[in-house]
Design brief:
- It is built from ten helices and ten strands.
- It has 231 residues and is of the alpha/beta class.
- The protein folds into two domains: 133 residues, CBS-domain, CATH 3.10.580; 71 residues, Histidine-containing Protein, Chain: A (2-Layer Sandwich).
- The strands form three sheets. Strands 7, 8, 9 and 10 form a four-stranded mixed sheet that branches. The chain has a three-stranded mixed sheet with strand order 1-2-3.
- A hairpin with a 2-residue loop joins strand 7 and strand 8.
- Helix 8 crosses helix 9.
- It starts with 6 loop residues before the first helix and ends with a helix.
């Protein structure tokens, strides 16, 4: 079975947090001191109330010399007048469980147009950490020998059940070259697709050859009687 990297493998666990009544200036100071762009806002029970980011805080500067338009959204007006983290935060926070895979986290970030996710535990949705886009890219920093081990274990041995020495694997800067000969063409195709899904793989050069082309040999189903009559 595959062992894909999880969000818990790359997330930041030591998270700076604030409460809803943390003063605005204190939030700004925390972001600047710790060189971070956002902090989760937690309530007295440890639950996640929201996230306050630089984007949320900048609303006050945006409307420093002019009032927000009357038709501006209520959240915009609230953040422009914010005096605490609770006033400025975005809520609810967009969260992801710590057992989610890195591709799942990347898709959620892309879909929601955000650069970070609050990570929760699996049992009670408590705060477990923060994962950012740069954290997700750490998968591509995996050394080549570790990527090779994953391909050998997860693709060749566990998924294809082939002779581990029938497929030759080379990894250089995350680019994988597969060579050797397998029994079926379908096996070669699946090997390439599964290898591309391994964490840390940048690209796959599939040079596998095969003895039997089971894809070309697959008979096409006959058209239905109605189709045959029309033709």
């Amino acid at each position: 079975m595959r062992h894909p990297l999880k969000v818990s493998d790359v997330m930041t666990r030591d998270v700076i947090t604030v409460t809803g009544d943390t003063p605005y200036k204190e939030v700004v100071s925390l972001l600047a001191t710790h060189h971070i762009s956002a902090v989760p806002v937690v309530n007295r029970f440890g639950g996640i109330g929201g996230v306050v980011s630089e984007t949320d805080l900048i609303r006050k500067e945006e409307f420093r010399r002019r009032r927000p338009p009357r038709l501006a959204r209520r959240t915009v007006r609230t953040r422009a007048a914010a005096v605490s983290a609770g006033d400025a935060m975005s809520h609810p926070a967009i969260t992801i469980p710590q057992t989610a895979t890195i591709p799942e986290a990347a898709r959620l970030m892309a879909t929601r147009g955000i650069t970070r996710l609050v990570v929760t535990t699996d049992d009670n949705d408590a705060l477990a950490g923060i994962v950012t886009r740069s954290d997700l890219l750490r998968a591509f920093l995996e050394p080549d020998d570790r990527i090779l081990q994953r391909i050998r274990r997860d693709v060749v041995v566990h998924a294809l059940w082939d002779d581990p020495f029938a497929i030759e694997i080379e990894v250089h800067d995350g680019v994988v070259t597969l060579s050797g000969e397998v029994d079926n063409r379908s096996t070669a195709d699946v090997a390439g697709k599964l290898t591309q899904e391994v964490d840390g793989v940048v690209a796959v050069d599939n040079r596998l050859t095969w003895v039997y082309d089971d894809i070309a040999a697959t008979p096409h189903p006959l058209p239905s009687p109605e189709v045959r009559r029309r033709t």
